[in-house]
Amino acid sequence: MTQVFKFGGASVQDAAAIRRVGELLARFRARPLIVVVSAMGKTTNALEALLAAAREGEAADYQERLETLRREHLTTVEALFGDRAGPVKKRVESLLTELDQRHRRHARRERPFHYDQTVCFGELLSTTIISAWLDEIGMATEWQDARDLVVTDDCYQAANVDWQATAERVRAMASDNDRIHITQGFIGGTVEGTSTTLGREGSDFSAAILAHCLDAEEVTIWKDVPGIFNADPRRVDNAVQLEQISYDEAVELAWHGAKVIHPKTLGPLQQKSIPLTVRSFEDLEAPPSTIGQDTRFDTQTPSLILREAQTLLEIRTRDFTFMDEARQHDILGRLVEAGLHAGLIDAGAMRLSLSLDGHPERLEPLVASLCEDYAVERCDDLTLLNVRHADDALLAALSAGRDSLAERRNADTAQRLFPGSQCRGTWHIPR
């Protein structure tokens, strides 16, 4: 059965990390093995800055950023291959030359198109280096261009997958069962061969696409943490690992703001009951977290999700009429047009309460639009507390000493909105 591994930027950020990936893969002898790799470290951010410099005509800044990219990647190649680095350096230089040419060719095109034609080079560079390194240490690999595998439309920066065409190409790719197939996350291509990107969490999604098309046994995402936790360990001093949760529970956690697997990654896996495992590349013996069909463990451990920098809008009709379905449809439609997500929605007879992420460039036009037709009260710098599977005692303990400005609760999730000043520092989940 096919296995699909995905390595993010932190796991391939430099020569030492790439050596560790090689050592890790040497422990897994089953074939076929599909390995999906992100750009090294913060390369995507660097490419976005390079893109901005190209579009703004900042020649000196552009050249400096391009040279930094070249130096960082070639330094990694030299650290890995030493005096045998020549052929790999040549391939890296060729990719960087092509990147430079694309910037010059597309700088006046619409930004989403330009973005996809250039940012894809982060993954092309990382997989070129990693594939060469695995060959160097005795692992037979086949480098695959994801732009030839994942067929998409031309909705740049958020391309939609043509599942039938993709499945045909992916199955043909995996027909060679004796090699490790190295390919890129985050990117795809149109039938005409134009580069596209898959949007938020695109690398994880790439792994799910390949697994779905191949009816894989499992997808493993390798991270610098041992798995999925019931709270952010940086904010909650007694966060614990969730070793097993269902697809539905993972989607719920993601919806409420937890940094788990994006729902679009889970969809293709859930359709074929393919489990997704999160494991630590730093500690291979650490127990992983698995997302699958089994729901038995979902309610055993409460999960706490904090959403910071929230804005509460209390929206009322001006003529004291009901906040009926038509008015809610109008308001939520404006929210969609603004590209904002409401972490909390609560309706009363004459009001609609929304807790929104504080993106000023999107929020301010929305508020201005709503104020033209409704009475709007606003409160900023709030923290939204989401608790999955909380009992009354736990919710009371977490709310103690804090002033609830809005709240909502159903059978599985409790939400309370507090002043941000009352939520700073470290939290603790009473047991």
TrEMBL record:
GO MF terms held by the record: aspartate kinase activity; ATP binding
Single GO biological process annotation from the record: lysine biosynthetic process via diaminopimelate
Pathway: Amino-acid biosynthesis; L-threonine biosynthesis; L-threonine from L-aspartate: step 1/5; Amino-acid biosynthesis; L-lysine biosynthesis via DAP pathway; (S)-tetrahydrodipicolinate from L-aspartate: step 1/4; Amino-acid biosynthesis; L-methionine biosynthesis via de novo pathway; L-homoserine from L-aspartate: step 1/3
Alphabetical UniProt keywords: Amino-acid biosynthesis, ATP-binding, Kinase, Nucleotide-binding, Transferase
Catalytic reactions on record: L-aspartate + ATP = 4-phospho-L-aspartate + ADP
One GO term describing the cellular component: cytosol
The enzyme's E.C. designation: 2.7.2.4
InterPro entries: AceGlu_kinase-like_sf, Asp/Glu/Uridylate_kinase, Asp_kinase, AsparK_Bifunc_asparK/hSer_DH
Alphabetical list of Pfam families matching this protein: AA_kinase
Superkingdom of this protein's organism: Bacteria
Residue ranges constituting the Aspartate/glutamate/uridylate kinase domain according to the UniProt record: 1-279
UniProt similarity note: Belongs to the aspartokinase family.
NCBIfam families the UniProt entry points to: asp_kinases
Stated name of the protein: Aspartokinase
Organism: Halomonas fontilapidosi
Lineage of source species: Bacteria, Pseudomonadati, Pseudomonadota, Gammaproteobacteria, Oceanospirillales
